[in-house]
Amino acid sequence: MSWGKRADFVVRNESPFNAEPPLEALAGGAITTLDTFYCRNHGDIPDIPPQQWQLTIGGMVDTPLTLTYEQLTNRFSARSVVATLVCAGNRRAELLKVRPIPGKEPWAHSAVSTAEWYGARLADVLDAAGVHRKDGLHVAFNAPDVAPEAVPVQAYGSSIPLSKAVSEEVLLAWQMNSEPLPRIHGGPVRVIVPGYIGARSVKWVHTITVQSTPSENYFQALDYRILPPEADPATAAPGEGIPLSVVPLNCDIFYPGDGEAVPAGPLTIRGWAMAADGHDVARVDVSLDGGRTWRQADLAPVTSRWSWRLWSLTVDVLSAPMTVTVRAWDDTGVTQPESPASLWNPRGYGNNAWAHVDVNVTEH
Amino acid sequence: MSWGKRADFVVRNESPFNAEPPLEALAGGAITTLDTFYCRNHGDIPDIPPQQWQLTIGGMVDTPLTLTYEQLTNRFSARSVVATLVCAGNRRAELLKVRPIPGKEPWAHSAVSTAEWYGARLADVLDAAGVHRKDGLHVAFNAPDVAPEAVPVQAYGSSIPLSKAVSEEVLLAWQMNSEPLPRIHGGPVRVIVPGYIGARSVKWVHTITVQSTPSENYFQALDYRILPPEADPATAAPGEGIPLSVVPLNCDIFYPGDGEAVPAGPLTIRGWAMAADGHDVARVDVSLDGGRTWRQADLAPVTSRWSWRLWSLTVDVLSAPMTVTVRAWDDTGVTQPESPASLWNPRGYGNNAWAHVDVNVTEH
């Protein structure tokens, strides 16, 4: 099943359906079209008609609440947020060149996409249930998709801190790029947690629980964690490693692609960058000599605090092999680690090393 | 004048007085004693008796206000915050090994210290003046100390975003480690902005202005910015470069010191780490083989969101030259850039590369 995606989608796994667009499609604009947006799933895709969907809000709230689709979409004021979602495993392919990472999809550069999401603020829905606004609480999400990879097998779930959950950018979304949220992307309703790894934007959400501890779901307590390099993921205990949440500062190159041949002469290098925690991208540096000297890329206008920022730089290239290296700086002066080798971890998450492509420049 | 500091203080400049403690003194505990806390100044130290000090709050407020020392210390409820201050130029010495940085103090490892600060919340004082709580405003601080290095020569000042200024950790402090705030550290009253570069914690503050743009003071608009490597600081225009604010994730080694000889056998390596933006330090890695393999340091308990976290690791070392490399990870899975060479910038700010010391291990 192609789920309305482009014919040239790169399918990493048919079941569960995991696929990323070709880079040139992703480069099409600041907003990714529905047929191009990457797909990352842990189980079969649920089929829930809107009139059957409902959401239960419970746990540390004064008045537990169940909402139908009609109630959610009519009772709460809705808003749009342009947000980039990125799979925590994006750019894993570069880590795989360092050491093997068994059992994980070899995502290349395109498990990242941007859409305009439309829905109710999660904060408003939590307030309607009389959420206890205490420090240190967590908001857990449960979904119906069953993940065979989980140990033990279980439906998907995860959690975010209450402090993030009540931020104005966090939505219960039922539209994506002004269309009803497609089934493949979590329709009829999903959570959107801008700035966090995609795994926290739980699709087909049916239960929200306010609780004093993070979710004990496999994907919160065990997977989606950065283990130290020497750890064995098969024997790691729940809670080991650094749980992923905020997406670190990162960037990547849309064009040229790695290994691509390009003609000598003017070359426009293009890509994206995104800062952590809602910070802005202040500078993107491009090097054609392996990081010895740098030139600054032109930054496209900011579309949203929670969206990637596109950049480009036109350079003149001579006929020869060439490496393009790119790094971003955020508005506090933070830049990225240099090398994937330093970032290798047993589950292959969070690669935010400098971006590199090797290019072969040929005569006209 | 020694300002009550230890006899073994390393003075970088007598006038204005800039000095850092020896590393072994800094390693003395999570709280730095008054005689050990680093000194970073841009002008002569003002001498303001508490009964003459006053603070004016103006700009975008409903009721501009002037407070005496007695009014500030009696009218507002006071609180303590343990916070690490760090000079944006700390670890510049490592950048100097990459390329020269003329006209700047060659801070080594000790322009960083931690104290318990006690004072009124800046938020409460701003509220007493009826601050306009609008998005995008700034809070500018002015002080009386005149900086000969500024172009043109001017009294010290800077600003922080209003969103940070009203955070509960930001203080107008009149005590440091339960003592009246020493004159050398900004007494009778200074601003404390935990998590921001030390330069924003303005000493001897006399005027606070709420305004729609950042401070135009030399130290906000021109200095304390990360310029791209190819820029000439002498011709940089106001607003060029990335203004420093939040201190990036960083770590350093207290012991052993660079170039030190240590006996073969058990060696306890010790140091500090601090995450950005109030995040926690999740892991500190120590390598004795240049980053090929790593071991995890033991982390001391968290004393405050805004304080460094001390760490230690006992290893067995053999008689040979050895490099100790250390890097920290924050609670979102971010780690530090590898090399000072990648971070070199014309004013030498923000070095948060992996920490290194070369050690000579000798026979017992």
Model description:
The structure is a homodimer of 364-residue chains. Chain A has 364 residues and is mainly β. Chain A has seven helices and 23 strands. In chain A, strand 7 and strand 8 (154-161) form a beta hairpin. The longest helix of chain A is centred in the N-terminal third of the chain and has 7 residues, at 69-75. Chain A is globular, with a radius of gyration of 21 Å. Chains A and B meet through strand 14 and strand 18 of A and strand 14 and strand 18 of B.
- Percentage of helical residues of chain A? under 10%
Shape type of chain A? globular
Radius of gyration of chain A: 21 Å
Pick out the low-confidence regions of chain A.
none
End-to-end distance of chain A: 41 Å
Strand residue percentage of chain A: 35-45%
Q: In total, how many beta strands of chain A?
A: 23
Number of helices of chain A: 7
The sequence of SSEs of chain A as H and E is: EEHEEHEHEHEEHEEEEHEEEEEEEEEEHE
Strand order of the largest sheet of chain A: 4-3-12-7-8
Give the SSE layout.
The structure is a homodimer of 364-residue chains.
Chain A: E1 10-13, E2 18-20, H1 23-26, E3 54-59, E4 65-68, H2 69-75, E5 78-86, H3 92-96, E6 112-121, H4 122-128, E7 138-147, E8 154-161, H5 162-165, E9 171-176, E10 179-180, E11 190-192, E12 207-211, H6 218-221, E13 225-226, E14 242-243, E15 250-255, E16 261-263, E17 265-274, E18 281-287, E19 295-296, E20 298-299, E21 309-317, E22 321-330, H7 340-343, E23 355-362
Parallel strand pairs in A: 3-12, 16-23
Antiparallel strand pairs in A: 1-2, 3-4, 5-6, 6-9, 7-8, 7-12, 9-10, 9-11, 13-14, 15-17, 17-21, 18-19, 18-22, 20-21, 22-23
